[in-house]
Amino acid sequence: MGKNLNIAVLPGDGIGPEIIDQALAATKAIAEKFGHTLTYEFGITGAAAIDKVGDPYPEETHQLCMNADAVLYGAVGDPRFDNNPKAKVRPEQGLLKMRQKLGLYANIRPLTIFKSLIDKSPLKNELVDGADFVCIRELTGGIYFGRPQGRSEDGNTAYDTCVYSRDEIERILKLGFEFAAQRRKKLTVVDKANVLATSRLWREVAQEMRPQYPDIEVEYMFVDNAAMSIIQWPKRFDVLVTENMFGDILTDEASVISGSLGLLPSASIGIHTSLFEPIHGSYPQAAGKNIANPLATILSAAMMFEYAFNLKEEGNLIREAVEKSIEQNIVTADLAGTGKAYQTTEVGEWIVNYIKNK
Ligand code: IPM
Ligand code: MN
Questions:
Q1: Is residue 248 flagged as an active site residue?
Q2: Of all protein residues, whose CA lies closest to atom 9 belonging to ligand 1?
Q3: How many Å apart are CA 24 and CA 17, to the nearest integer?
Q4: pTM (predicted TM-score)
Q5: CA distance 97 to 119
Q6: Where are the domains of the chain?
Q7: Cα(276)–Cα(179) distance, integer angstroms
């Protein structure tokens, strides 16, 4: 039986609108093919929303997200703000506010290798072939949100605070254990327990929880070591779980293993509506040029079918279409090498046709 799929679509800034168009086209094609009724509504966020209403995540957008079954999200960020350290509101604050207000405490970032792209990886083939891990990044705590944050009165000192409560740590570690249980049963808890008090609490909580999951192998790794090991021997990892900022950094690093930052999708889940977004940013230099790689966003739509709607077959068909497009070299400039570089829209259209004709 077909389902009703009600989606909030937040394109954001830079290449956001272009990649979202393609992900939405793939979503429509899937809904049609499988007999689901798709309704969607656009919301403003990021610099686009600051320009319009002075707020990067306005209440109206929040209500739209709250009332939807899933949020499909492009990217935010704009050089006008990056180059202005004194800007009062920043597009990224919208993303952070949204994560907080929707209670999106877990960000799931899987790394999958497409066989046909192995030569694009900066790593040697034998290191990359067969690598398959998921990074679970805590998303609503840590130094991103800890208070106090700011400047001293004279402006010459600045501070951020890293804060984690036991509850916050427990709920994200639980997810890490559960993911590992569904996979190859290995969990790597990444921290900096040799330096940070928050990391020591993470480790303490993980050690307390461990007996509940006797068949999971748990290892603890310092983040600097993890950064090295991810490129030295990526196949050793199954599930990594870590705090907000470590997860941010490690997943950008991990993403290039697959050959391009433009390939990695993510799902953010938590208390309210789940959200699906590529892990890359708004790539303002490419905005409006029809050259951005839409695959990370299209793959985020695949995760949306799987996680938000429990429609695995639908998600898999999107993944299959993406894999075939890569195999056939229907790829954007970041992946084309010396071959033909296809436009964003051409890649998206190819994928839609694949879905329709399957
Ligand atoms: C990400 C991004 C964001 C983050 C920025 C845009 C605030 O880099 O989703 O990884 O740091 O979380
Ligand atoms: Mn990031």
A1: yes
A2: 279
A3: 10
A4: 0.95
A5: 39
A6: 1-105+266-358, 122-258
A7: 18
Whether 133 and 185 have beta carbons less than 8 Å apart is answered as no
pLDDT tens track for 281-296: 999 999 999 999 999 9
81: CA distance to ligand 1 center in Å? 15
Residues 240-265 pLDDT 10s: 999 999 999 999 999 989 988 899 99
Q: Which atom of ligand 1 is nearest to the CA of 248?
A: 10
* Ligand 1 center to 353 CA (angstroms): 32
Catalytic status, residue 354: no
Ligand 1 atom closest to 95 (CA): 7
Catalytic residue among 78, 248, 307, 354: 248
Identify the CATH assignment for 1-105+266-358 out of 3.40.50.720, 3.40.718.10, 2.60.40.10, 3.30.70.1060.
3.40.718.10
220 is catalytic: no
pLDDT, the chain, mean: 96
167 is catalytic: no
Quick one: CA torsion of 302, 304, 309, 315, rounded to 10 degrees? 10
In this prediction, residue 1 carries a pLDDT of: 81
What percent of the chain clears pLDDT 70, i.e. is strictly above it?
Answer: 100
Q: Comparing 1-105+266-358 with 122-258, is the CATH topology the same?
A: yes
252 CA: nearest ligand 1 atom: 10
CATH of domain 122-258: 3.40.718.10
Which of 55, 73, 164, 192 is labelled catalytic?
Answer: 192
State the residue for tokens 């036991």.
166
* Ligand 1 surroundings by CB, under 6 angstroms: 77, 92, 95, 248, 279, 281
The number of beta carbons lying within 10 Å of the beta carbon of residue 98 is 24
